Amino acid sequence: MKIINVTCIRANGVFVKIETDEGITGYGEGSNFTPLAVIGMVEELKPYILGEDPHRIEYLWQACFRRLFARGGPVTGSAISAIDMALWDIKGKALNVPVYQLLGGLAREKVRLYGHIIGNSAEEIAANAKRLAAKGVTAIRYRGFHDTDDIDLHDHKRAVRQQIEYTEAIRAAVGDDVDLILECHGRYDPDFAVMLAEGVAKFKPLYIEDPIRHENPQALVRYRQHTNIPLATGERGHNKYDFREFVVDGHVDYLRPDVCWCGGITEIKKIAAFAEVYNINVVPHNNWGPLGTSASVHISLAIPNITLMEGFWVDSAKPTDVVTPWPKIVDGYAYPPVGPGLGVEFNEEIAASIPQKPTRVLPKLNGFDGSVRDW
């Protein structure tokens, strides 16, 4: 079997289609915040995979990564992720088995999901949490500062107060049996992250996610010295090397790689195995795309040290028609897909019919003094 064509499909996301001379086609996803750049990088990587055997997934991953002079980063990570995902889809279809069987089979019979809630007040976000919990969802992720995002403002002290207020309200609304995941989006300076951790400790969150920026893992040492609340980070990791210090130096309790950003199925399995050696569990980040979601379900079913995975759609029966069928969800758990490859059919016609949104411009956050703040 040989690869005869590689094309990108942009449909409110970046999807890669790989065609073979035996008529088997695979689809992958590399959606991120810079879609045009990802599409350009897929074009740059084409010469390394055209004419090659798609079954040689590891070889082709290495070719796409190591034959570049400048390696790593979000653009390359997403482009390789999309190509890699499509290759696994082809292999599964060629062998008529789901991808999770190729990864060693089911490590679990179902995977627990966590849902998302938002709100611009403690009352609103608590009501949304109660509604989600009533549907059987047992883990809920939330953050504050949606209201200040709308006016391009971030103030550490104000955000800390709001997140403590939200956490108290959500815990009161859902009780102690629902796990709370406090998302910080890398917003805080270390001192304010400590202040937040001290303020929410009595509400016992499952973990705090990305309290500070990820670029300097040593900065987490200062944070860890002041709290026993578990810490999660890693959605901004783009290959195994980005996770080394977090794992080896014991900075985190949960890693958060995204299969659409970190180098695909091939790489996320390696990241998880690396973490397993150090007794660190994995909670896959999910960027919400339909193929990325399917791939996330497969790896979450097959990798042993996965605790739960992100599923913002956990209370939605069918959030998109671009792929069918959508994963079966019961009481906050996703069940194994049954079809070969990724277990879904990608509908190019529906994808092409979706009105294209402009490239997303992220909030231009400033502090009260007009200085730039992190999004």
UniProtKB/TrEMBL annotation:
<dbReference type="InterPro" id="IPR018110">
    <property type="entry name" value="Mandel_Rmase/mucon_lact_enz_CS"/>
</dbReference>
<dbReference type="InterPro" id="IPR036849">
    <property type="entry name" value="Enolase-like_C_sf"/>
</dbReference>
<protein>
    <submittedName>
        <fullName>Galactonate dehydratase</fullName>
        <ecNumber>4.2.1.6</ecNumber>
    </submittedName>
</protein>
<dbReference type="InterPro" id="IPR029065">
    <property type="entry name" value="Enolase_C-like"/>
</dbReference>
<keyword id="KW-0456">Lyase</keyword>
<dbReference type="Pfam" id="PF13378">
    <property type="entry name" value="MR_MLE_C"/>
</dbReference>
<dbReference type="Pfam" id="PF02746">
    <property type="entry name" value="MR_MLE_N"/>
</dbReference>
<keyword id="KW-0479">Metal-binding</keyword>
<dbReference type="InterPro" id="IPR029017">
    <property type="entry name" value="Enolase-like_N"/>
</dbReference>
<dbReference type="GO" id="GO:0008869">
    <property type="term" value="F:galactonate dehydratase activity"/>
</dbReference>
<dbReference type="InterPro" id="IPR013341">
    <property type="entry name" value="Mandelate_racemase_N_dom"/>
</dbReference>
<feature type="domain" description="Mandelate racemase/muconate lactonizing enzyme C-terminal">
    <location>
        <begin position="122"/>
        <end position="230"/>
    </location>
</feature>
<dbReference type="InterPro" id="IPR013342">
    <property type="entry name" value="Mandelate_racemase_C"/>
</dbReference>
<dbReference type="InterPro" id="IPR034593">
    <property type="entry name" value="DgoD-like"/>
</dbReference>
